[in-house]
Amino acid sequence: MPPYVVRLVLEAAVSAGVAREHLGRLPGATVLGQDGIRVPTNLLARVWEESAATFAAVGGAARVGRMWTPGQFHVWDYVIRSSADLTEAFQLAARHLPAITDPDSAFEVTRDPMGRLTVATRPVSTFGRVGTLISEFVLGMLLEQATTALGRPVIPEAITIPGPPPRSHDYLIETLGTRNIQFDAMVSAITFSALDASAPLPGADPALAVIVCEHAAYSISNARLVLGWLDKVHAEIAAAFADGPPSLDRVARSLAMSPRTFQRRLHDEGTSWTEEVEQVREAEATRLLRDTGLNLTTIAARVGYTDVRALRRAFHRWHGQGPADLRRHLTSTAPQ
User: Fold this and answer.
1) Secondary structure of residue 269 in the 3-state scheme
2) Which residue, 204, 205, 210, 192, is CA-closest to 95?
3) By residue range, what is the domain housing residue 71?
4) pLDDT of residue 226 exceeding 70
5) 239 and 263, same structural domain?
6) Confidence of residue 227 (pLDDT cuts 50, 70, 90)
7) How far, in Å, CA of 90 to CA of 233, rounded?
8) Are 198 and 295 in the same domain?
9) What is the dihedral of CA 134, 139, 145, 146, to 10 degrees?
10) Most confident of 185-199, 242-256, 302-316
11) What digits encode the pLDDT tens for the residues 28-86?
12) Structurally, how many domains does the chain consist of?
């Protein structure tokens, strides 16, 4: 992903009291000041993991999203502001979403029969246990984008959040401006009124909209990829699946390390061989389930399982539901 969102969350964490030196030691953080690059998605997850407790004390992840300011996400912001209305703005923003995040993320933008506009988000499996926090962050950011684009306060008609309800969610009511918040939902989503959805945007400029959309596509295709060490590990693990369950020794050799040095480096990164194999396996199995028509036996073999029952158990462990139900859900929520 580009460094913009990571920079916003990192600066918010520092403002909330997390030591900049601590976050600066995270793998990949030293290049965040550069533009025209893409950094490992798991860097964002690591920043959230290190800052979650601090954010909770200052109003939660949604409040971090509302710290966004115009221009902070470069061309993507102008895609929204130059559109005709909020519906077109988020439709174009969804089309150019890789300009600010992982290409595996997605927005689904819909209007219901009453004219209300809903923007639902699909998180990335790499986000792991901080996925709910990032969903709340995105909701806050989308609300702030809508408020800025319309040039007036916006009150959402409804909010849905995938995670379980917290002991108290007064902080979300205050930050998102509505009591209509549903937890344990299938997707993270924000719904705007029909009036807000179709109101002309003060900054609408059709000619500029064409230019910024073209520039957004250009910036995505021409960004320079900066891989972190764990990304290289993930690539080697994914390649090893072709021969069955991946071997630690083989991956270590491919990275020009002894097995002992490799395990020590994983420990220094705050992870383990088992955790990284599981993460790559989950991401690939979920992608194959969502994007292909392959049967479960084939998917199991592709991610190093010799028994399809092991894959079924894994999906229940990862997603809390079986692969058939998950495939239906992923297919139904995928953007058209």
Assistant:
1) coil
2) 210
3) 61-217
4) no
5) yes
6) low
7) 35
8) no
9) 170
10) 185-199
11) 787 888 888 888 887 888 899 889 888 888 788 999 999 999 999 999 999 999 999 99
12) 2
Q: What is the mean pLDDT of residues 296-323?
A: 89
Q: Is 302 helix (H, G, I), strand (E, B) or coil?
A: helix
Q: Are 213 and 263 in the same domain?
A: no
Q: 146 is written with which tokens? A: 């809508």
62, 122, 140, 186, 274 from 166: Cα distances, Å: 14, 21, 17, 17, 30
What is d(CA 55, CA 42) in angstroms, rounded to the nearest whole number?
19
Q: Taking 60 as the threshold, does the pLDDT of residue 275 lie above it?
A: yes
Q: What is the mean pLDDT of residues 174-189?
A: 92
Each residue of 40-71: b (16+ CB within 10 Å) or e?
Answer: bbbbbbbbbbbbeeebeeebbbbbbbbbbeee
In this structure, the answer to whether residues 286 and 200 fall within a common structural domain is no
pLDDT tens for each residue of 78-133: 999 999 999 999 999 999 998 888 888 889 999 999 999 999 987 676 676 788 88
Q: Residue 138's pLDDT band (boundaries 50, 70, 90)?
A: very high
Answer yes or no: do 122 and 97 share one domain.
yes
Burial class from Cβ neighbours inside 10 Å (0-12, 13-18, 19+) for residue 13 reads buried
The candidate with the shortest Cα–Cα distance to 144, out of 112, 120, 176, 169, is: 176
Contact status, residue 296 vs residue 286, Cβ threshold 8 Å:
no
Asked if the structure places residue 13 within a domain, the reply is no
**Whole-number CA gyration radius for the chain:** 21
Q: Are strands 117-122 and 106-111 parallel, antiparallel or unpaired?
A: antiparallel
Q: Which DSSP string do the residues of 94-126 spell out, in sequence order?
A: HHTGGGTS-TT-EEEEEE-TT--EEEEEE--GG
Are 71 and 208 within one domain?
yes
pLDDT category at 332 given cuts 50, 70, 90 is: low
Where do the DSSP E strands lie in the chain? 37-38, 106-111, 117-122, 158-160, 181-182, 188-192, 224-225
Neighbouring CB atoms inside 10 A of 255's CB total 15
- Give the Cα separation of 334 and 122 in Å (integer): 8
CATH number for the domain spanning 318: value is: 1.10.10.60
What integer pLDDT is reported at residue 241 of this predicted model? Answer: 84
